[in-house]
Amino acid sequence: MSRNDSKELWLNLEKDIQPKTHELGRYTTQAYEDDPCALSFITSRYKFCARMLSAAQTVIEIGCGDGFGSALVAQKVPRVICTDINEGLLEENRSRMKKFSNVEFMYHDFRNEPFAEKVDGIYLVDVVEHIFKDEEESFLDNLCLSLKQHGVCVMGTPNKTSEQYASAFSREGHVNLKDHRELRELGEERFFNHFIFGMNDEVVHTGFPEMAHFQWLVGIDPR
Which residues fall within 8 angstroms of residue 24, CB to CB, at 6 or more apart? Predict the structure, then answer.
């Protein structure tokens, strides 16, 4: 390699980058095409889950969708069980995500029963707002029954105060939005300890809750 030739330097380094591709799932592909910046928000949400659950050995994701976030959590957690109620999508995930050996995709409906195995942590991102209010109690009962005694739940959901800025598509699916007071009440009712965070774009914070577009409940020790 000649000296002080940046093109030659980079092309030499680039030889170590394998010409591989990874196919994104249907939800993530649509987000990338419709609003590419949204992927940075989604990635940041799953990074938060990964950090909060990094001490766990086995965790469950409820409502994994196309599995985009599973790789981020699997980087920090030895075993990730991704559940959903869409068997067709799960089958796609099993094929597309098979290189991630510590990620499993399983059908499970938490409205009906707890998971067969108690785990160290559970996370759900953009899920609870899609659960009808009359289904919520059984859903949360079964979630808590699936956690070990000192288990951790990380729940992320849009803030009710930001609904006025949501798209028509989002509004149609958001049947159970909560503000920070309702989310705090849920935490008090379901966990012996809990923490509330706000999030705007990629930034997690403890600022004025009404101005948070997204919010988090981190619950510890299910009641």
Answer: 32, 66, 68
Residue 212, pLDDT score: 97
pLDDT tens-digit series, residues 94-133: 999 999 999 999 999 999 999 999 999 999 999 999 999 9
Structure tokens at 58: 């086995």
Q: Is 192 a residue whose pLDDT tops 70?
A: yes
What count of other Cβ atoms lies within 10 Å of the Cβ of residue 102? 15
For 30-72, give the DSSP string.
HHHHH-TTHHHHHHHHHHHHHHHTTT-SEEEEES-TTSTTHHH
Long-range contact set of residues 199-205: C-beta below 8 Å, sequence gap at least 24: 199/44, 199/45, 199/48, 199/156, 201/40, 201/41, 201/44, 202/40, 202/41, 202/43, 202/44, 203/44, 204/44, 204/48
Task: pLDDT band for 1, please (50, 70, 90 cuts).
Answer: low
CA separation, residue 132 to residues 156, 209, 211 (Å): 16, 24, 25
Please state, in angstroms and rounded to a whole number, the distance separating the CA atoms of residues 197 and 43. 17
Mean pLDDT over 3-26 rounds to 90
Average the pLDDT over 134-151 and give the result: 98
Query: Which domains does the chain show, CATH number per domain?
Result: 23-222 (3.40.50.150)
Alpha carbon distance 55, 77 (integer Å) = 7
